[in-house]
Design a protein that fits this description.
The protein has 231 residues and is of the alpha/beta class. It is built from 6 helices and 8 strands; from the N terminus they run βββαβααβαββαβα. The longest helix is centred in the C-terminal third of the chain and has 19 residues.
Length: 231
């Protein structure tokens, strides 16, 4: 069942669903980067399924263009991704993610405990999942734009983990400091910084992929999900 259809008040959209081998476990909502549900996102879902989680990655570009699958390998793909990003409605996306979260909880075999994990654009959306939805645990990788939503930090009452790349070309050091300062009083939020890492260090086969830091961030992520989602 690699692709499912989800119904929202505004229409229907598709999502990639990876199922654990024993067909029982918690759920993870995998939130796309600016490149759509590409091979990297599907790989993340498959990796989570291998760890015993139902992993669902919804198409958040469906209102603009359904089925987008881009990479970071060409200028043309970057330009298209940028166009989609700048016309993207994050508030509507969070609504779609809440609907997807509710859907995932109803999948046969899912225990009902569901977290979220997002990358880049999805890193911001994972933060908003923490502040606006009933997700049980949230992990954001190198989220872009979190500093504009720091006023929502007080709404976060579930475990939330943020991975920050210290040399992120899209999140300058002063913005990183602003994020850390704005979130440090909320004990539900844990921030990990990765020295010398650029944006998207955990993107499989990406330009800035770093195996060692991806492994470290993944261990921290899986530990958080294990504690929050598994009995």
């Amino acid at each position: 069942m690699p692709e499912v259809t989800i119904t929202s008040p505004d229409g229907t959209f598709t999502a990639y669903l990876a199922i654990p081998k024993n067909e029982k476990g918690p759920g993870i909502l995998v939130i796309q980067e600016i490149f759509g549900i590409n091979q990297d996102m599907r790989d993340h879902c498959d990796a989570m399924a291998a760890e015993g989680y139902f992993a669902l990655c919804p198409d958040l570009y469906w209102r603009q263009e359904a089925g987008v699958q881009l990479t970071d390998k060409s200028k043309a793909e970057w330009e298209k991704a940028g166009q989609l990003y700048y016309s993207f409605d994050a508030d509507k996306a969070v609504e779609d993610l809440q609907i997807s979260l509710t859907y995932l909880r109803t999948v046969q075999g899912c225990t009902g405990k569901v977290g979220s994990m997002g990358f880049c654009l999805g890193g911001l959306l994972a933060y908003l999942m923490a502040s606006r939805t009933d997700s049980d645990c949230n992990v954001g990788y190198y989220g872009v734009g979190i500093e504009k939503k720091l006023g929502e930090a007080g709404n976060i009452r579930t475990p939330t983990l943020l991975h920050i790349a210290e040399q992120d070309q899209f999140v300058p050091n002063e913005i990183q400091s602003q994020i850390k300062l704005g979130l440090h009083e909320n004990s539900n939020i844990t921030i990990h910084s990765y020295p010398h890492m650029d944006h998207a260090f955990a993107r499989h086969n990406g330009t800035h992929y770093d195996a060692a830091n991806t492994k470290l961030a993944r261990k921290r992520t899986m530990d958080a999900f294990e504690t929050a989602l598994k009995d």
